[in-house]
Design the sequence.
């Protein structure tokens, strides 16, 4: 397709090479996001005080929900537009872009109203300490009330990724991170704005990055430049993105609720086990970050090839990435097992032997099952790229139900280590619905109709 500057055409070339080129910038982006979140906390804790840090910490579940909503919708944007890119339908690509604009404006406006009206009742419901509740409310009102900045940046980045360009969003994310850090320091150290300054710095950095990203998008990708007729919403495309985004956001929300239930079970074992769960989760998140970025990249690959009706390339991609993820997960397992103790000691003092023992049991049990964690991400992303969110929801329900049930039952016989086993068993059981749908060939019946003048699908060799 003409005009795809800096983008990777996922319908040509070896899948494993495409994924490495596409996913590596996203992995670096995740690192930068983690770093600037850490800087936010460090600036508040060191230069404002522990109450300010606690105030922002008290909003974590709320801000995570905002992020979840944004991620759900913008992931749907990437998947739907990537299918139009694969089909070579520039009119539909612009319809997807316009639908994204309308959804961003609508959700941003709704989030503004909800944040302003419900921030305080929500903080009261969450039993936020009286000493920090005013700062927590202010933080939510700024982050949520001006959440359109975050939505706009994520939407623009998702459109670029749908075109096969993951490097440009990385550049703008690095810019956003550095700008956010600079504004954090300026607002707190110079203007002494405290929590309001940190929230404002985040919103301003996101807004500036969104504006620059959107300007770049229109300049470098002529097929995205909107004409007068394009602004009339395509209801089918709008509902397709919204429906898929709502399902993905709901899926994430239910997983969050499930984790709250499991956390309640863990809390019953006391502070040492809670601390061990926190430490073990931080170690495991290194593997999750690896798999999640590959999975998002693969959903774009599948989306483009699904739109182009290249079933052979989808099958080839799944085979190659299955082996890649398997290899990476075995490496991650080995490193976690070998360096389990040094990793745990990054978080825990050497004299806290009970926490160390429980943390090591978490890492050493779950690390053996990393291949299944990687594969459930892979098959979820494969089906999401096809738009089959319903199947991935079934998979998530099976995984979540297994985790909750087993985290309650297994500790009766084997103590808190039963909780550590519940997640890997959930990964294995959650994988089953995806495998049945994919290897049963049901997805091939859902391929989009082939245009009358379209060429036949090339052989895998011809396709790269």
Sequence:
């Amino acid at each position: 397709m003409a005009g795809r500057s800096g983008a990777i055409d996922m319908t040509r070339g070896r899948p494993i090479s495409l994924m490495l080129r596409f996913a590596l910038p996203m992995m670096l982006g995740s690192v930068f996001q983690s770093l600037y979140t850490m800087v936010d906390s460090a600036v508040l804790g060191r230069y404002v005080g522990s109450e300010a840090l606690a105030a922002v910490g008290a909003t974590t579940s709320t801000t995570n929900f905002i992020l979840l909503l944004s991620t759900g919708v913008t992931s749907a944007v990437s998947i739907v537009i990537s299918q139009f890119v694969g089909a070579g339908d520039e009119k539909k690509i612009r319809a997807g872009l316009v639908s994204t604009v309308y959804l961003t404006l609508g959700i941003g406006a709704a989030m503004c109203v909800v944040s302003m009206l419900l921030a305080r009742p929500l903080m009261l419901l969450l039993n936020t300490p009286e000493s920090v509740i005013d700062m927590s409310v202010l933080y939510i009102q700024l982050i949520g009330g001006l959440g359109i900045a975050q939505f706009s940046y994520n939407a623009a980045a998702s459109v670029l990724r749908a075109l096969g360009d993951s490097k440009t969003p990385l550049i703008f994310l690095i810019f956003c991170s550095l700008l956010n850090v600079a504004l954090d320091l300026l607002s707190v150290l110079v203007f002494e704005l405290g929590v309001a300054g940190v929230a404002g710095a985040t919103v301003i950095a996101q807004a500036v990055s969104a504006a620059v990203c959107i300007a770049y998008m229109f300049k470098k990708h002529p097929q995205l430049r909107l004409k007068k007729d394009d602004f009339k919403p395509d209801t089918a495309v709008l509902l397709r993105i919204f429906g898929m985004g709502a399902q993905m956001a709901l899926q994430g929300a239910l997983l969050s609720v499930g984790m709250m239930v499991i956390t309640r079970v863990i809390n019953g074992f006391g502070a040492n086990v809670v601390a061990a769960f926190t430490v073990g989760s931080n170690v495991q998140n290194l593997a999750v970050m690896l798999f999640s970025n590959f999975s998002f990249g693969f959903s774009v690959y599948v989306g483009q090839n699904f739109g182009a009706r290249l079933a052979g390339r989808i099958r080839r991609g799944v085979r190659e990435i299955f082996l890649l993820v398997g290899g990476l997960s075995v490496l991650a397992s080995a490193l976690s097992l070998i360096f389990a103790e040094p990793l745990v000691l990054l978080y825990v003092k050497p004299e806290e032997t009970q926490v160390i023992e429980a943390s090591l049991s978490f890492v050493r049990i779950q690390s053996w099952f990393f291949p299944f964690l990687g594969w459930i991400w892979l098959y979820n992303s494969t089906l999401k790229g096809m738009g089959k969110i319903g199947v991935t929801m079934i998979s998530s329900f099976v995984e979540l139900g297994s985790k909750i049930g087993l985290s309650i039952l297994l500790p009766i016989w084997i103590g808190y280590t039963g909780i550590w086993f519940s997640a890997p068993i959930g990964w294995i059981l959650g994988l089953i619905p995806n495998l049945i749908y994919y290897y049963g060939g049901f997805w091939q019946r859902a391929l989009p109709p082939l245009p009358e003048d379209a060429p036949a699908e090339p052989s895998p060799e011809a396709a790269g």
Q: What stands out?
A: The radius of gyration is 23 Å. The CA atoms of residues 32 and 88 lie 33 Å apart. The chain has 16 helices and no strands. The chain has two domains: 15-249, 271-446.
